[in-house]
Amino acid sequence: MAFWRISICSLLLLLLSSSTMATASIYRPRKRPTSSLIQEKFIQCFTGSSQFYIPLSTAFFTPNNASFTSVLQSTAQNLRYLVPSMPKPEFIITPQHEPQVQASVICAKRLDIHLRFRSGGHDYEGLSYVSQIESPFVIVDLSKLRSIKVDIQDNSAWVEAGATIGEVYYRIAEKSNIHGFPAGLCTSLGIGGHITGGAYGSMMRKFGLGADNVIDARIVDVNGRVLDRAAMGEDLFWAIRGGGGASFGIILEWKIKLVPVPATVTVFTVTKSLEQGATKLLYKWQTVADKLDEDLFIRVIIQKANAGKNNAKTVTTSYNALFLGNAERLLRVMQQSFPELGLTGKDCTETSWIKSVLYIAGYSSNTPAEILLQGRSTFKNYFKAKSDFVKEAIPETALEGLWKRLLEEDSPLMIWNPYGGMMARISGSQIPFPHRQGTKFKIQYLTLWQDEDNNASKHFDWIRRLYNYMAPYVSMFPRGAYVNYRDLDLGMNKNINTSFIEASLWGVRYFKDNFMRLVKVKSRVDPNNFFRHEQSIPPLPVQARY
């Protein structure tokens, strides 16, 4: 039987029949060479393989280099993975030209050194800059590859992986005030990794995900070759647009399709506390959020807050919105579809699309758009996150229980993002991101703390209890999760071997039935599992491929 005809169930039976078939990687534990020898051999290989001269002082950063820590921490968002106890790379490579990315892959493969690579550093579990399962490892940091070439006539742009989504938005708006791109709300996201997980944003109900609007790509494969869409083939092109980062190769560039935006858009934020009827209002939002005019995106930000003169604790729900149109039409839409919010003209701000990007990202109204060119995250915390997808409205009684649990934690945060519109019309198999028709909204859970708390376990315990509490009210069989909100609680690969059985536990939650197709693509393009991490897509065991 050809391996592509094997179902997940029959394959699991096949794998369970033999313990020798449970792992796919040909890599085996090895005696660790010294750091100096690793660096010496890699530099020798790298300088011989790259077509461009690059000063070692600006390309290689070792722990002995004064700039090593600042480079390592430069884009890392989750401070949990920067504490001294976390493993550190042997060195960091910062390529300035594409051939240097190719050389990094060729040399790491030749010398059997594990590779991690990052574009923006927003990986929730630090997988782009920390390896907890394998040592030694090195990091390829793509932050110097950030060219953006916007072609308004073609309604497209080529964007290098190290550019942030904020830079992309700025360069588009620089050329046109009626073009945009439907990707992330956090403007410091590196576009290289962002799109590999799907890339949702405030225009997703109108145009779908960022990954739905990619028309070409250039990637370095396991053999160090640069492949565009035509060269890589449609299966691999399908896999890299939503199949999760760092399993199939290193993204160099995306060619994105620009979308039309009106010259005037409208934004608003309306906040209601528990004392102002937040419970009933949130229940109502659940029933309409995915059915609203697709020009309207209303997310709900849920936080713990102080209430009244005595600073008693309460929960607030903030309805944070973008409408692709003017305030007059927005008010008509809201009066017809969601009058319970009580939106008035005073709540609304008409602005340009690029200014709406700043608003949704949390910047003040007088912030110049040029801040998007800084390309650095302003959100750096110790945090743990989880995600869910919701198909039926959560009842008010369950919301009351949710409030009690939020009030128990120091700094909890939940963000509910609406679906429907274009998200419901795109097939769940068009790209690997499967959470489409029937999904009302997505939940992101976070708990944050500000210092290296020795009692961090209490925050983990709290969010896991909350996650368990929500189980009856979210998607089931599988309980879905968003791959760009990586969650190692769902499972992880062990050591340097990738088990198909273990990976299936989290793989079907991120990708549903698309997981099996991703495994087939992986088995073809990277059968020896060179590109791997704690939740990478596994190749099939050799015995199961035929």
UniProtKB/TrEMBL annotation:
It holds the Pfam family BBE. Its cofactor is FAD. Its main location: secreted. Residues 1-22 form the signal peptide. InterPro entries: BBE, FAD-bd_PCMH, FAD-bd_PCMH-like_sf, FAD-bd_PCMH_sub1, FAD-bd_PCMH_sub2, Oxid_FAD_bind_N. Keywords: Cell wall, Disulfide bond, FAD, Flavoprotein, Glycoprotein, Nucleotide-binding, Oxidoreductase, Secreted, Signal. SUPFAM superfamilies: FAD-binding/transporter-associated domain-like. Residues 85-261 form the FAD-binding PCMH-type domain. Coiled coil: none annotated. The keyword Nucleotide-binding applies. It is found in: Secreted, Cell wall. It comes from the Eukaryota. One of its GO terms (molecular function) is FAD binding. PANTHER family: OS08G0158400 PROTEIN (PTHR32448). Belongs to the oxygen-dependent FAD-linked oxidoreductase family. This is FAD-binding PCMH-type domain-containing protein. It comes from Gossypium darwinii (Darwin's cotton). The lineage of its organism: Eukaryota, Viridiplantae, Streptophyta, Embryophyta, Tracheophyta.
